[in-house]
Amino acid sequence: MTDDLDAATPSSRLLRPLGREVGTRTAGALAQLGVQTVGDLLRYYPRRYSSPGKMTDLRELRVGEHVTVMAQVRQATVRKMHTRGGAVMEVIVTDGVRDLSLTFFAKHEGRLRGHESKLRPGRVGLFTGNVGRYRGTAQLVHPDYTIVGVDADDEAAALVEASRPIPIYPASAAIPSWRIAPAVRTVLDPLKREEVPDPIPEGIRTRHDLLDLFTALRDVHAPYQDADWKRAQDRLRYEEAFVLQAALARRRAEVAEQDAVARPGAGQGDGGLLPAFDARLPFVLTKGQRDVGQQIAADLARPRPMQRLLQGEVGSGKTVVALRAMLQVVDSGGQAALLAPTEVLAAQHLRTLRQLLGPLAEDGMLGGADRATRVVLLTGSQTAAARKEALLDAASGRAGIVVGTHALLGEQVQFADLGLVVVDEQHRFGVEQRDELRTRAGVTPHLLVMTATPIPRTVAMTVFGDLEICTLTEIPEGRAGVATHVVPADNQAWVARTWSRVREEVDAGHRVYVVCPRISPDDPEGAQAADDADLVAEPGTAGDGGGDLLFDEVPVRRPLRAVLEVAEELSAMPVLAGVRIGVLHGRLPAAEKDDAMARFAGGDLQVLVSTTVIEVGVDVPEATVMVVMDADRFGLSQLHQLRGRVGRGSAPGVCLLMSAAPEGTDAAMRVHTLAETSDGFRIAAVDLELRREGDVLGASQSGTGSSLRLLRVVKDAELIAQARSDAAEVVDADPTLARHPALATAIDLWLGPQREEFLERA
Question: What letter would DSSP give residue 408?
């Protein structure tokens, strides 16, 4: 296609800082929302639309939320306060069925006259503030508001305003929706069509009957009727999918042009490591492991870089599949690097690989096999001597497999012939980190990405669209499975039974994990002190006030449990007397972390109180019980990962989720869903429904320019598939997008080096 040769780059107006357009005060408030330029503001779409005749359903209000509601004034009264002096204005607004209280305070009654003159019974307005509760009634204290048909320049403007859909923007305490709306109009009204280059080629717009970008921006912010903003959203939703898929298609095209060294493995009768490894495996590979292994082996044998994602249920045997791929590369004269997100997981991988390989990993050592290699560890906290030895083994080629953390990305790390990069838990790494290691070699190495988080097809198509995807669904024979139960945190009998069960498992020779969301009681609430804990913020619960004053006070919630305090409490419990209890968290020095895991794996420690540092990869077959404190505060997929750490041996596992979540809340649904199913794909789908998709995709990590504002990767599956096909057509004909400069610019602006990371998150 060559029909997009018009304006190539955003005009200087779109890149202009907002302070010059809307004033420094408004610009400062918008900056808190991540909106800094004219282009950012134009892309800050309304969350929903209201019309004067349609009130907000007040049943949907949740205590602690910052909301904007449309309601009708039913009653307004001003009175003096006798207990503290001053005056209070109490306004009751209604959706026709339920009421919401608005409260305004002032030193003198006269200062409330302005509110009194506008908030007359019968008038309809938009009201914004934080929802509190007073005497059983929802309330907003000192809400900001605008009255329909009153807050306009003249009568004609009021009539027009009253007949049009009203855009409601995602707002904050610093700037309400109706102050965002005029700011948008300030930059939108003088905008010219030529200042808005369109990333969607005209031919594709015509094919799908899509609006051009200039018209879509006008209609999404200033519609005259509902059909306007709906059609505008359709275009903008498609654009999000198209730009994402074009970025992925361009990455695929770039990789397809690169050369790689074919790594076919050892020939028949050559005595390679892979055949020797297969011969010593103490178990039979599942059909899925064999099928996926054949796909990977075929990819490695080609002179083009493999780009493959290996996803599988917890315990489905991904490590064995990855190891067999690494051995095929070593048999071909190359090296493999395994990149793990934490030192604990890297050390675990080292132990696992050496255990699986046995003498095959003892090259040059007493007892090593005739044909062997070395597996070495490289982390940032190693001693100088250990690090120097690992660096020499990697650079000389003596180590066929190098396991490490981000320390593998250091400039001083050199490989003799890097043939394969295996990235474990890809969502912990950005694309730059992944590519840094891949481009270290003279020729692009093959790439295998592993994730234990099952990914629904449409998410995978959007997030990992530049990778071929293969999936393991079977669990190897001999795994006894895990039973999951929810323990109400306020039920003392159930809690006591939990610790009795822990004692029974310890007495039976098993091990127990106790997971906490914080490290220390001194850690602030909400701080991710628990080693990347995916803590979910729940709305606060406001209490009932009393007297004349109305406050939206939120009582102190029971603090999140912390590793150090829980370990101390368990040590003092008579039921656990004599049990050897240890702790593990991210603030410990690497040597202490390794020591704690080794002692737990060896049985010297029987109970390990830990943060989520044990979330992925840690493998202790004797661990049969996991107790998760404050389980309702963790993300659903993370709970699934944590549960996968137990029941990995022949004894059945038990996962006990301590939760204080009220029934009917999202938090309660998370823990009950986990108790009901072990199907990781169902869990992932529920997780998508409960969480903002932008967070699931990692978009919120990367600035507003890369957020998915309108696209929903599950609901919009067909649209994504169509955009993928259209983007592939464009990129196939123009791999560098030289003839589609507006599209290339959109990719750079939305998904540039500093923002592209969210493409690789799930």
Answer: G
For the chain, where do the domains classified as CATH 2.40.50.140 start and end? Answer: 52-164
pLDDT recorded at residue 397:
94
Compute how many other C-beta atoms are within 10 angstroms of the C-beta atom of residue 453.
23
Is residue 156 predicted with pLDDT exceeding 60? Answer: no
Can you tell me whether residue 568 is helix, strand or coil? Answer: helix
Q: Where in the chain is the domain with CATH 3.40.50.300?
A: 283-472, 482-677
Comparing 71-80, 290-299, 471-480, 748-757, the range with the smallest average pLDDT is: 748-757
Triad 52, 56, 62: Cα angle to 5°: 155
Fold of 283-472: Rossmann fold (3.40.50)
Q: Which helix (H) or strand (E) holds 451?
A: strand 446-451
Residue 66 clears pLDDT 90, i.e. is over it: no
Task: Inform me whether the pLDDT recorded for 692 exceeds 80.
Answer: no
Could you tell me the CA-to-CA distances from 235 to 50, 229, 241 in Å, in that order?
A: 21, 10, 10
**Virtual CA dihedral for 318, 321, 326, 330, nearest 10 degrees?**
160
> Domain 482-677 - what CATH class?
alpha beta
* Residue 145 DSSP symbol: E
- State the Cα–Cα distance between residues 450 and 423, nearest whole angstrom: 6
* 168-219 confidence digits (pLDDT tens): 898 887 888 878 989 999 999 999 999 999 999 999 999 999 999 999 999 9
> Which two tokens mark 264?
């076919």
Q: What average pLDDT is seen over the chain?
A: 82
Q: Which CATH number fits domain 52-164: 3.40.50.720, 2.40.50.140, 3.30.1120.10, 3.10.180.10?
A: 2.40.50.140
Pairwise CA distance, residues 320 & 352, whole Å: 10
Q: Tokens for 618? A: 């840690």
Give the pLDDT confidence of 437-466 residue by residue, as tens digits: 556 656 889 999 888 766 766 666 666 677
Greatest CA span in the chain, whole angstroms? 98
Count the neighbouring beta carbons within 10 Å of the beta carbon of residue 366. 5
Residue 315: which region, alpha, beta or left (left: phi > 0; alpha: psi -120 to 50)? left
Lookup: tokens for 156: 């004609």
Single-letter residue type at 295: Q
Residue 163: half-sphere exposure toward Cβ, Cα within 13 Å = 7
Cα–Cα nearest to 737, from 121, 99, 116, 243: 243
Residue 11's Cβ-count burial label (10 Å; 0-12, 13-18, 19+) is middle
